[in-house]
Amino acid sequence: MPSDTARTETASVPAASIPPAAQTATVDQAVPSVLAAADLVVHGQPVAHLHSGGRLPAIRAPRPYLHPVASLGGAVLTEAEPMDHLHHLGLSVAFSDLNGSNFWGGSTYTADGPAMLPNHGTQVPVDWVQDRYGDGKDGSSSSSVSGTVSWRSAAGIELAVETRSITALAHPEAKIWGLTLESVMVPGAGADALAVSSSAVKGRKGAGYGGIFWRFPRGTGQPLILSAAGAGEEAAHGSRSPWLSITMFQAGGPVTVILAQHASLAGSAKYPWFIRAKDYLGAGPAVAWSEPARADRFHPLELSLHAVIHDGPVETSDRALDLLRNHPNLTSLSLSDRTP
């Protein structure tokens, strides 16, 4: 089992290099009360490995994260603890400022610029359960892991309680699978309400990151980025496009991840997209893009991200939408959401 501090190469690798799953028969398996690790499986093949994050140093804001996430062809689509940002952890839920605590890792943006502060929080997964469903007669399969996450400040105060589920799903097209991450957060015992801020809210232009964040590998060339707002990073960044497509070019060939925020893709996304492709490649919904997001016990903070992982390029909006339509957790797409 990989340790929480081990790095994995980001080049295309055989799917067998992903930690093997235990069983593919239909089972309800109780994961230890504090999650150690788990695998997500599609067609009997491991496609994602979930770490608890418990062995990470405090400066990286320890938290559960998926790494590696791989295509069915074996291309690794996450990066964890890269040298440019050691606190970037594959696919995770993270905020740079939740009630004054840094759950992103690294420095905190202040009025005087970035500063390393002793304010890093920790996410502790508890009471998680893993469900695996073996291949049926039609060849379909899926697996999921779900449970509670306790968000604790550096002083150990529980600021938030989150219910999170992560599901890997078969896709009707070959060499493709779907992923869904859903999160609902309410204040914990140590808080009456939740306030999510970001570096952008504090004055750093364009730095509205925070929410569900996917750190991708760089690949061998410039990625191809498409959205309903147009082609390229500048068009997608800050847009509320209902979908976002990122094709990466790796040694083994092109591979694409298509993202959406809603089960129903008609209309605009709930949150603007944060995407960066120059210094590194990463993307996700930005909860506090330009102003703080607030929640309480009666109005929880709800996040979701749906992905289609495809061994191949996606070069047009028509192709992106066709693949998204067949994600088992997504419904109809509006024709008006097509890029001109």
Number of helices: 2
Q: Label the overall shape.
A: globular
| Largest sheet data | 10 strands, antiparallel
What's the helix-strand series? Answer: EEEEEEEEEEEEEEEEHEEEEEEH
Count of distinct strands = 22
Enumerate the strands of the largest sheet in spatial order, edge to edge or round the barrel: 1-9-10-11-12-22-18-17-15-16
Structural class: mainly beta
Radius of gyration: 19 Å
Ends: how far apart?
Answer: 46 Å
Beta percentage is 35-45%
The share of residues in helices is under 10%
| Uncertain residue segments | 1-33, 136-140, 333-340
Overall average residue pLDDT:
86
- The tally of structural domains comes to 1
